[in-house]
Design goal:
Elements (H helix, E strand, L loop, with lengths): L11 H14 L5 E5 L7 H16 L3 E5 L3 H7 L2 E6 L2 E7 L6 H9 L19 E11 L5 E11 L3 E6 L5 H7 L8 E6 L2 E2 L4 H6 L2 E4 L3 H4 L7 H7 L6 E2 L2 E2 L1 H9 L2 H5 L14 H15 L3 E5 L7 H16 L3 E5 L3 H7 L2 E6 L2 E7 L5 H10 L4
Parallel strand pairs: 1-2, 7-14, 7-15, 10-13, 13-14
Antiparallel strand pairs: 3-4, 5-6, 5-8, 8-9, 11-12, 15-16
Helix pairs in contact: 8-11
Length: 373
């Protein structure tokens, strides 16, 4: 990161790294609480972070690591406690013999952890839903972030986007929802060039889950139900107003909301945890049944059970004909869900690469070295 860069210019992963550095530089700090510190870091950065925790422990720091990622717990923890529904369901020390299955069982309770099942890839001649040709995308200060972008999304297919944090993921996602105008090139939906803002993209059947829902998708003072109505649930009128009672009942019986354990509709969204905000924006996108879904980091801040639920929901949404562009820092997730992958590296979009014909090592090299990999 450039020392003179404005914090608001940084993407979520860069801001996370900055916060970690600030904590480590604070004078007199001897106890550090990390709350989901790796949720926006790429695999290479996670490995470095876990190594850093080991060094801090050797230097006498006390560390509390709050995370949903079991592999991180097993890698660094001396003691583990599992919380579920506000209660401690498990506690053990490393010498007791920690293992992943025990931790998963404590996290899930009597719920069954279902595997994610993806059918065989759809045929290659699916109808095109969205296309960007010769696209040039500028950053917040007019600098070129991505150039010569060519990308096609087909109905019923999931295209994954891989890249080191800050490689243009946010700018590309915003462009494909009309939040950011192209500096050159064009975006087309169903063969029609899109020239207007987000309302036109929404009317064309596009839903968008941003990389930072707490900052970008929460209106202070609004309830969960009010957020759901903003873009997802159809409004029901009653006289000259809205039939909120019927909408509340509709949300309570909504299958997507049940599957993602959405909080009660009357709760204020700005009082929710990051994971519950994520559940809200994901539920809203799924309820709308969009023709095109631009989704960033869907499993961020979610427990392993909810993560698998949303992954299965995305697969089923694609089976129903939705074209999905999936941004994720988790290569395992990208390979599990995507029919093909593209890579953002060196201001270019590389690919697509069929997931059945490549592997995480090859994609990782392209993320780091671009076309020379």
């Amino acid at each position: 990161m450039e020392p003179d860069a404005q914090v608001w210019q940084l993407d979520l992963g860069q801001r996370q790294r900055l916060e970690i550095v600030k904590v480590l530089l604070a004078p007199g700090t001897r106890i550090i609480i990390f709350d989901e510190p790796t949720s926006v870091l790429v695999p290479q950065e996670v490995e470095s972070f876990l190594s850093m925790l080991g060094l801090l422990r050797q230097d006498g720091y006390g560390i509390l690591l709050i995370t949903h990622k079991i592999n991180e717990v097993l890698a660094v923890a001396d003691r583990v406690s599992v919380l579920r529904n506000g209660q401690m369901t498990y506690a053990a020390a490393k010498e007791d013999g920690l293992d992943g299955e025990t931790l998963i069982s404590a996290m899930m309770g009597d719920k069954t952890l279902k595997p994610v099942v993806k059918p065989a890839s759809p045929s290659a001649d699916e109808e095109e839903a969205l296309r960007i040709d010769d696209g040039r995308i500028h950053g917040d200060h007019g600098e070129a972030v991505l150039t010569d972008i060519r990308l096609s999304l087909s109905k019923g297919r999931i295209v994954g986007v891989a890249g080191i944090s800050g490689s243009g993921q946010r700018e590309l996602a915003e462009t494909l929802f009309g939040l950011r105008k192209l500096a050159a090139g064009k975006v087309s939906i169903g063969g029609t060039e899109m020239k207007d803002g987000p309302r036109a993209f929404m009317d064309a059947g596009v839903s968008f889950v941003s990389e930072d829902p707490i900052k970008e998708s929460v209106i202070p003072g609004f309830s969960i139900l009010e957020h759901m109505v903003l873009d997802g649930m159809p409004m029901r009128t009653k006289g000259s107003g809205i039939d909120w009672k019927m909408l509340k009942e509709q949300l309570e019986h909504c299958e997507e909301a049940k599957l993602l354990s959405l909080a009660e509709g009357s709760r204020r969204a700005d009082t929710l945890s990051g994971g519950n905000v994520q559940r809200m924006v994901l539920s809203r996108a799924l309820i709308r049944r969009p023709d095109i879904l631009i989704i960033s980091y869907p499993s961020r801040g979610l427990d392993i059970g909810t993560t698998r639920t949303i992954q299965q929901q995305l697969i089923e949404l694609a089976e129903q004909g939705t074209a999905i562009l999936l941004f994720s820092e988790d290569l395992d997730e990208l390979f599990k869900l995507s029919d093909e992958l593209v890579v953002l590296s060196g201001k270019r979009l590389l690919g697509p690469y069929k997931t059945a014909e490549t592997d995480a090592t090859q994609i990782g090299y392209r993320m780091l070295k671009g076309e020379s990999a």
